[in-house]
């Protein structure tokens, strides 16, 4: 059984989505970065957590209108059942004509210790969401109420979000670039490889700052550079 430990969570929080997507691509996992999904605020903190999913269908008046008996119940359940440390990922079919959630719902996620919310639709009450401090990712803001466009239909089943398949239990990582989905069974390997890649990029940054040209340094290191990198790592460790 794959375990999402505190150590893996903290390690992923130190890796950018660019590093993570590169590590997954080298393992043949390529369609994991959500398209058209961006942070609500560029200065919000990074997000790492286990996916808990909700899916919307297109609204239909007899099912989601003001007289429908189950109007909003599933969405409320999502806010109450997404586990502490989890990320609520919403399949809004890429439709941002109406909100997928607002500040009260998102405030409840924050209060319960959840790690964030992601939708390929829109969110409303942006100022209120920012006050909650919960990392939030969306296609674009959407003020109209969700019942005009969306019908919440089920929870914690496989969904699509931003063109990516998301399964309950996947690891979801978000930063200023966007959101990437990491299969839980690959999380530890991604951490190990990502840490090594991040260290080399730090070395490459120093080399570039000293006037080094890219050939032989990045993206492919030649033998001389590999030797210099090993010496650099040794000097840091000593």
Automatic annotation (TrEMBL):
<protein>
    <submittedName>
        <fullName>Uncharacterized protein</fullName>
    </submittedName>
</protein>
<feature type="binding site">
    <location>
        <position position="124"/>
    </location>
    <ligand>
        <name>Mg(2+)</name>
    </ligand>
</feature>
<dbReference type="GO" id="GO:0046872">
    <property type="term" value="F:metal ion binding"/>
</dbReference>
<dbReference type="InterPro" id="IPR036704">
    <property type="entry name" value="RraA/RraA-like_sf"/>
</dbReference>
<feature type="binding site">
    <location>
        <position position="125"/>
    </location>
    <ligand>
        <name>Mg(2+)</name>
    </ligand>
</feature>
<keyword id="KW-0479">Metal-binding</keyword>
<keyword id="KW-0460">Magnesium</keyword>
<dbReference type="Pfam" id="PF03737">
    <property type="entry name" value="RraA-like"/>
</dbReference>
<dbReference type="InterPro" id="IPR005493">
    <property type="entry name" value="RraA/RraA-like"/>
</dbReference>
């Amino acid at each position: 059984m794959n375990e999402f430990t505190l150590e893996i969570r903290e390690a992923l929080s130190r890796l950018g989505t660019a590093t993570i997507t590169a590590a997954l691509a080298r393992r043949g996992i390529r369609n994991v970065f959500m398209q058209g999904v961006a942070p609500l605020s560029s200065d919000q903190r990074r997000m790492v957590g286990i996916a808990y999913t909700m899916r919307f269908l297109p609204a239909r008046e007899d099912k989601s209108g003001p007289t429908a008996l189950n109007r909003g119940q599933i969405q409320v359940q999502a806010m109450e059942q997404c586990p502490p440390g989890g990320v609520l990922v919403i399949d809004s079919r890429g439709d941002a004509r109406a909100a997928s959630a607002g500040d009260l719902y998102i405030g409840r996620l924050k209060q319960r210790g959840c790690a964030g919310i992601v939708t390929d639709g829109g969110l409303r009450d942006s100022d209120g969401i920012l006050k909650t401090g919960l990392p939030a990712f969306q296609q674009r803001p959407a003020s109209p109420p969700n019942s005009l466009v969306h019908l919440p239909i089920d929870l914690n089943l496989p969904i699509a979000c931003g063109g990516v398949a998301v399964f309950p239990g996947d690891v979801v990582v978000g930063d200023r670039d966007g959101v990437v989905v990491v299969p839980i069974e690959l999380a530890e390997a991604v951490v190990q490889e990502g840490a090594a890649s991040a260290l080399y990029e730090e070395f490459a940054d120093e080399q570039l700052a000293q006037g080094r040209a890219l050939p032989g340094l990045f993206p492919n290191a030649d033998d001389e550079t590999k030797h210099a990198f090993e010496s650099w790592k040794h000097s840091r460790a000593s």
